[in-house]
Design brief:
The chain has 21 helices and 2 strands. The chain is mainly α. A hairpin with a 2-residue loop joins strand 1 and strand 2. A two-stranded antiparallel ribbon has the order 1-2. The chain starts with a helix and ends in a 14-residue tail after the last helix.
């Protein structure tokens, strides 16, 4: 974005007064970047490009170095994912300020979110994130005519379903960016269209999703399995049980942790509130007692997951956050009146996202638990919006907006587990 030269120079002078004097130097060898008239030009350490010689000689070296410091600081405090979120919020403000049907506004915002997320899914720098280099190398190998399943396991953890998925993609192209784009579509589109279908406040749910999708840029196999599970969710209410079962089996073939999604079919047929509470208590006791044993059996029979046993215990904050979202939904949605069966199942699923980390906290198990509840947390984006709509008192609704936004922003930007500063695009 271009800045007028006068305004830019004034900003330099003012900020030079603020920063400590040792941030600057007269040594031209330390010049790395400068910004003027909207262009970022790299000045090499050994010489300055000929076409920029006249201008660089005329500019005070302190100001050039200041630009380097300013750019680095902005990159630190304004990573690309945060800029992406801000851009989306600006688009939301512009779109919602127009006098048009809400359905038309939602369509614009949905496509805006799709473009933004797929851009980051496709053009991420695979070398700055965990897991991704192995996925890309495995895809390159699977694209070969002599590739085998056992050979692919040498590049990364592999299941037959994921190998078959990669083999299907390889029919069209072996380009890694095609792979990240196609996989990004399978991961992203189910989330966004789920929000479009079930959220009464689409812009807010999409904003929360844009603060949550960074993990899906690296854990490709699990989020591919989650995408298939999300697709099966509305089919359950159309009584298409065969399709639901096939999608669930496909998800388990891609990532074995998708077996946990099977709890949704138990929750679907639980109609009594007392029976539901009994189910939660039984689930807590079983997980508290058997989580370590189940994890040992799982890791012993599925290669490549030993890291889960070596990880630190699950944070209690995971339980607190999910308990707050579940508690708000139960109080304002379930307790407040009659809801449709889709919403009722979503709230039941949030109960599981509360029980599981609580049991894991007491049993001191590893961080596989947050990975398991990802098969249920996708409903948060719709339930939070439904909860906000159900709050009739304006000031309480405003406070709820702030609390929800803070929770997601904390996990997105502030938390020690945030990946926002590790993520980079290939252009950066």
């Amino acid at each position: 974005m271009s800045l007028p030269v006068g305004v830019f120079s004034l900003c330099l002078v003012l900020l030079q007064k603020i920063l400590p004097p040792d941030q600057f130097t007269d040594d031209p060898q330390n010049v790395s970047f400068y910004i003027i008239k909207g262009y970022k030009t790299q000045c090499k350490r050994t010489h300055i490009a000929t076409q920029n010689m006249a201008y660089c000689q005329a500019v005070d070296y302190q100001r050039i170095v200041f630009c380097d410091i300013l750019y680095s600081n902005l990159r630190h405090f304004m990573p690309s994912l945060l800029v992406n979120l801000i851009i989306f919020l600006v688009v939301c403000f512009i779109v919602n300020s127009h006098n048009a049907r809400q359905t038309d506004k939602n369509k614009v915002l949905v496509w805006c979110a799709i473009i933004q997320v797929l851009f980051f899914q496709t053009f991420k720098d695979v070398n700055t994130l965990p897991d991704i280099p192995g996925y890309v190398d495995a895809y390159r190998y699977i694209c070969r005519e002599d590739a085998t399943y056992w050979g692919a396991t040498g590049y990364y953890k592999m299941q037959y379903g994921y190998y078959f998925y990669n083999k299907l993609l390889s029919i069209i192209s072996s380009n890694p960016y095609y792979f990240t784009f196609a996989t990004g579509c399978l991961i992203t589109l189910p989330y966004i269209f789920f929000i479009k279908k079930y959220s009464p406040i689409v812009w807010f749910s999409l904003a929360l999703y844009l603060m949550s999708f960074v993990q899906s840029t690296m854990a490709l196999r699990q989020y591919t399995a989650i995408g298939l599970c999300i697709i099966s969710f509305p089919l359950l209410f159309k009584c298409k049980y065969v399709w639901c079962g096939l999608l669930w089996l496909a998800a388990m073939a891609i990532h074995p942790t998708a077996v946990f999604f099977g709890l949704i079919y138990v929750l679907y047929f639980i109609r009594s509130r007392k029976l539901l509470i009994a189910f939660y208590l039984l689930l807590f006791l079983m997980l508290y007692k058997f989580i370590p044993m189940l994890m040992a059996v799982f890791v012993g029979n599925v290669a490549g997951y030993n890291v889960y046993l070596e990880s630190s215990s699950v944070e209690f904050s995971t339980f607190l956050i999910n308990a707050f979202i579940f508690g708000m939904a139960w109080f304002f949605l379930i307790r407040g009146g009659t809801v449709d069966e889709e919403t009722l199942l979503m709230v039941k699923m949030l109960g599981v996202t509360t029980i599981v980390p609580l049991a894991a906290t007491f049993s001191n198990t590893s961080d596989i638990v947050p990975r398991l509840i990802l098969y249920f947390t996708f409903v948060q984006f719709a339930v939070i919006a439904k909860t906000l709509v159900s709050i009739k008192i304006g000031i309480i609704r405003s406070v709820a907006y702030i609390l929800y936004a803070f929770i997601f922003f904390y996990q997105f930007y502030i938390s020690d587990n945030s990946r926002i500063f590790e993520f980079k695009l290939i252009f950066e």
